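User: Modeling request: complex.
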Amino acid sequence: VIGLYDSGFGGLTVLRRVRDALPDRDLHYFGDSGRAPYGGRDVHTILDFAEQAVEHLVGRGCRLVVVACNTVSCVALRHLQHRYAGPGSDVRVLGVTIPGAESAVRATRGHVGVLATARTVASHTYVTEIHKLDPSVRVTQLAAPLLAPIVEEGWEDTEIARLAVDRYLDALGPVDTLLLGCTHYPLLMDQFAGRGPTVVDPAPYLAERLVEWLERHPQFDPPGTGALSFSCSGDPERFARLGSRFLGAALPEVHLVAEVGGRLLPGDPDAAPVGQVVRGGR
Amino acid sequence: VIGLYDSGFGGLTVLRRVRDALPDRDLHYFGDSGRAPYGGRDVHTILDFAEQAVEHLVGRGCRLVVVACNTVSCVALRHLQHRYAGPGSDVRVLGVTIPGAESAVRATRGHVGVLATARTVASHTYVTEIHKLDPSVRVTQLAAPLLAPIVEEGWEDTEIARLAVDRYLDALGPVDTLLLGCTHYPLLMDQFAGRGPTVVDPAPYLAERLVEWLERHPQFDPPGTGALSFSCSGDPERFARLGSRFLGAALPEVHLVAEVGGRLLPGDPDAAPVGQVVRGGR
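Assistant: Request completed. Predicted assembly structure:
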């Protein structure tokens, strides 16, 4: 079973492409929806959360983990590879940023714009990865903090979405290629299309690269029955409801992985408390 | 010195009112901007963060702490009072929700609408507090996740803000009074005004109540020189820049309180790392 990890729902747009490209593989998706969004968090917090998520997926039997979240890939991928996929390990961790950079460099005529979370922009990882491939490509990044909430509200087809995309594209300036640096943004594809820049969603290219990678490294995941399974750290009902829009299909049962004392704790604790919560001393 | 605590910048709209009402008091504001927004987090995480913030303020000499954040007040205030302000303690912790509920009940003719974060809505605390004061008042709550990012982008006076407010007010239905249940929303007052409902910002009433409270409990804060000081857990430069719009005035120096290993750590660590961060094993 291949594990996909995202801070919330967005990575389901990646899961969709991976399922299309690898219909016979078993896939398990973990969305850390109870702790999303990661964007405003300290990098060390993101590293902690990402370690816990990878350990959760490895504990479920995944030998191949795909970090579908741009923010996590940008700040934590190297750490995760160092910690879990070093020499002698039978686990591999792949991210979304190198496929993203490659697909942008393939598409561009010289000037790539990147829209992403503030944390992804601050990491400069997309700039670094694009310049590794072609130092002559100009890269302009911009944080677009309204776009993910617009998608989560289901307002992709509203005037609000159109105006927000207008503002962000105006602020990016005359780029010829637009890299969607957050897994929420493919749901805004209708708003981005026809505005001038070639729009690049890294997910289809990531799925293509994953097929090639598995041909070279078949030992990390045997073909299965195409089963999909899901876990999340937030409200599973909400996850299934919102997630279906990102996946483009209904989700089966979503298993709850609660966060207790800052750690992910598989199990099925009481429902989330309502109102004032008073804890005993410690 | 009176301590004010918020998850980020929003509470500066409360500080502004407290300073106006109590011009001779020393005020220290702590914004947990490096861990904001709290909205999507687990309640136990919010309790942890709130404990750390109160301990930080008490450590700076505050005997009176005002929780200016609606989300924290709604889920954690009773816990904070139980833990820090119990019998025999010389510390008091006050929140924004009871003044908010009181000002809404004073204003309404029977139907209050509350716009707030998803976490505040889920807590039902505003419904509970309003019904304690008058069980006959109808309360309709709605999470408005776009409004805080619109304010943080500085887009309060745009068509995007107008359309988003339209949608949220339409979804609230025919309320006669609108309670602004998030400290960001007073910056959207021009958008909310003239739409029908009487708009209630809890902050001026909270400041009035604080003046009365200090008259009854002078031992918790002696008059000072009207000094303002600031600390935050995120980027202090960004805090000062964004914060000035919420305060309505330039901020003096902002002291950094870093989060390390999940705890607030007063000090002055290295600047935030850029790009991939690889930590050693543990």
